[in-house]
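pinned: reference chain
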Amino acid sequence: MKFPGEAAERVARALLQAGPSTASDLADGLGMTTTGVRKHLTALVDAGLVVSHERAPYGPTPKRGRGRPGHVFALTPAGRAACDSAYDDLALSALRFISQEYGPDAVQAFASERGERIASVVRQAGDGDPSPQDVADALTRSGYAAQVEPLGDVAVQLCQHNCPVVDAAREFPVLCEEETEALGRILGRHVTRLATLAHGDEVCTAVIPIDSTQAPHGAFGKVSA
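pinned: its structure tokens
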């Protein structure tokens, strides 16, 4: 699916990197006027590439000042696919072939090895024990547009606004499961998925306790892809 113009594509890709945002936030980041950004957002909504909400799909509700309420905009699955779908198509085709020719154990082994490769990117990025921010930075370099949000004094939330293999993960949820397990191992803490793009949510989120002795397995619940 094509974008309704180059400027609209810039706005869509800004949403891919920043996650759900207001028109004002996007305008500040892009150096555009808020009115101009709203025009392109309207075109993207009409094209089915962006959806508008009264609040962000995760995190605290921003305080509203005077004037009309500021809506929060997020990419739809079609919008994310329009930004970049070639790698996902290849991954899905490869996984279908592996599943048909060698069975589910081979898919599991592939997903486990992929999780370890993601973990190795994090290990290579720093010297000491990796932090959730190190994980987010490494995931962003790998195309996941990740960031860390605080959750009080006990945990942080890892948000991934993009997934290069979202269609593959939708059909083969073991990809999400092994990725989560690998991140937990490298951080030395239990990582709990709350939402995934593959499950139809607008962002992948995971809770990571600040202290490894906190948040026993399953404390925050879990969403499967």
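why pinned: The chain has two domains: 6-83, 86-209. Confidence is low (pLDDT under 50) at residues 60-67, 214-225.
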